[in-house]
Design a protein that fits this description.
Helices cover 37% and strands 17% of the residues. It is α/β, with parallel strands linked by helices and 508 residues long. The chain folds into 2 domains: 166 residues, Ribosomal Protein S5, domain 2 (2-Layer Sandwich), CATH 3.30.230.10; 226 residues, P-loop containing nucleotide triphosphate hydrolases (Rossmann fold). Strands 11-14-17-10-18 form a 5-stranded parallel beta sheet. Strands 1-2-4-3 form a 4-stranded mixed beta sheet. Helix 5 links the parallel strand 8 and strand 9. The protein binds zinc ion (ZN). The site of zinc ion (ZN) has 8 residues, from loops.
Length: 508
């Protein structure tokens, strides 16, 4: 007496198919499960036995063996409960094995036979669908998420009892959806920020060239307000990106009954007390961190100097590779993490520098404050903009401000330009031009070259910051629709150069 059912396990945001087979034979009554199982999967044995008994089915006094395939993938999580229960019921001939074979099944069961939701439904069903499975059984609470996989016939069940009825062809009735009142969430918009044109211009420049951005300014200068609105000027997500992002939220358990894929670029703003694991992802059963939840959107680090250095240094590799890789005994996990970094900080500890009338910081305090920021992180920031508190006139002035939609149109035109320019390259944005290709893509006329030479000495630039200025100038020229980098682009790019410890306190 044998039966088999298909289920899956999620690693990173990838779903790996797993087959659960049950065999029942005469012999000493034992119940064993094999196939590289974690402790929690082993515990499923008792849960399933009790749940079946409470549904009205006692395990026969036989030798019952449950095997999980493939054997080389470690099985963890509680989603195997329902597949185990069904494979046993199949082997007992209580449900039709032939039908069972064609299903995808996932779900945790409670001792009373109730079925509970699991994480990662979206990637699992998407994979099953690609593999040619057309019908699935999922926990009722995961139904809305499951329905996003369009070609799949979904049975959303509350209990083992109901599952048996569904498979044996008895009536299945999906409860009508509760009609939620349609409340369109109001999205933040750049038009809500009065004035602050320097700050807005820096945001647009950053998004245009996909440069990481640092905002310096006293509290109340609108740094957070601006950062929150950056996702609204990034191009809309395409369907593939929406699916990828939704999968990340699905495996994080953050999908919570959405009726559509995530179609807005995320904005994540972890507190400075965040742990390295919270930021990058991890844990014994790995989960995506903040940087993956910010995938295709904005990771905002407010009060940058307050973050621990080693927490920030963990960002180095993911920022390079646009993904986080976690190596675990039971396999490698990879979470996408292609985000734009936006950071903000006060210019000094008291917040008033360079206003020497108000700033109470000594030069030692200033230096210590800046030294707290991780240098490798600063190295990845191309644009630094100083903001000030909004002057009263600007605040009270009534005028039409540009909408995010309008700014986004310009941004998309610049992206189009870069896509064409870099069509034969492995990168697509100005911020990604490697050092070896700066000469090719950011060439200057003689006069501008002389100017940059002068700046190099005057500002005591490093080769790295020199390159950054050129890349930002390239973006400014693109925003201008100009193939040549002109003087005004360089002048503006020089203003955006990153904070430099040596310069701090002397010049802003
Ligand atoms: Zn100060």
């Amino acid at each position: 007496m044998y039966s088999i059912v298909r289920t899956a396990i999620v690693q990173g945001i990838k779903s790996i198919p797993v087959f659960v087979e049950a065999d029942m034979s005469d012999g000493l009554p034992v119940f064993e499960m094999v196939g590289f199982l974690s402790a929690e999967v082993k515990e499923a044995k008792e849960r399933v036995r009790t749940a079946l008994r409470n549904t009205g089915y006692r395990l026969p006094a036989k030798r019952i063996t449950i095997n999980f395939m493939p054997a080389n993938v470690k099985k963890n999580g509680s989603g195997f409960d329902l597949p185990i229960a069904l494979s046993i019921l199949g082997a007992m001939d209580i449900i039709e094995k032939e039908k069972l074979k064609e299903l995808f099944v996932i779900g945790e069961v409670g001792l009373n036979g109730e079925i509970r939701p699991v994480h990662g439904i979206l990637p699992m069903l998407a994979e099953a669908e690609e593999a040619g499975i057309h019908t699935c059984i999922v926990p009722y609470e995961n139904a809305t998420e499951a329905e996003l996989v369009k070609q799949m016939r979904i049975y959303a069940v509350h209990s083992i009892k109901e599952t048996i009825d569904v498979i044996n062809g008895k009536r299945y009735q999906r409860k009508p959806k509760e009609q939620k009142p349609l409340t369109e969430e109001k999205q933040p918009d750049f038009s809500e920020i009065n004035g602050q044109h320097v700050l807005k211009r820096a945001c647009e420049t950053a998004v245009s060239g996909m440069h990481n951005l640092l905002m310096l300014g006293p509290p109340g200068a609108g740094k957070t307000m601006a950062a929150m609105r950056i996702p609204t000027i990034l191009p809309p997500l395409d369907e593939k990106e929406q699916m990828e992002l939704s999968k990340i939220y699905s495996v994080s358990g953050l999908f919570s009954n959405r009726e559509q894929l995530i179609d807005k670029r995320p904005f994540r703003s972890p507190h400075h007390t965040v742990t390295p694991q919270g930021l990058a992802g991890g844990g014994s059963i790995p989960r995506p961190g903040e940087i993956s939840l910010a995938h295709k959107g904005v990771l905002f680090l407010d009060e940058l100097p307050e973050f621990k250095k080693d927490t920030l240094e963990i960002l180095r590799q993911p920022m390079e590779e646009k993904a986080v890789r976690l190596v675990r005994m039971n396999g490698d996990y990879e979470y996408p993490a292609d985000f734009m970094l936006v950071a903000a900080m006060n210019p000094c500890k008291c917040g008033y520098f360079p206003d020497m009338q108000k700033c109470r910081c000594s030069s030692g305090t200033l230096e210590r404050y800046i030294n707290r920021i991780s240098q490798p992180l600063l190295d990845r920031i191309d644009i630094c903009v100083a903001t000030s508190q909004i002057p009263f006139e600007e605040l009270t002035e009534k005028r039409e401000e540009e909408t995010s939609e309008k700014i986004r149109e310009r941004v998309m035109a610049v992206h189009e330009r870069m896509r064409y320019r870099f069509r034969n390259e492995s990168f697509c944005y100005n911020s990604q031009i490697p050092g070896s290709k700066i000469g090719e893509y950011c060439s200057l006329h003689l006069k501008q070259e002389a100017y940059m030479e002068k700046m190099y000495e005057k500002l005591n630039l490093t080769a790295r910051s020199y390159h950054k200025i050129l890349k930002v100038a390239r973006t400014l020229a693109d925003m201008d629709g100009s193939e040549d980098i002109l003087q005004r682009h360089l002048t503006e790019a020089v203003c955006y150069r990153n904070i430099d410890k040596k310069l701090w306190g002397r010049e802003v």
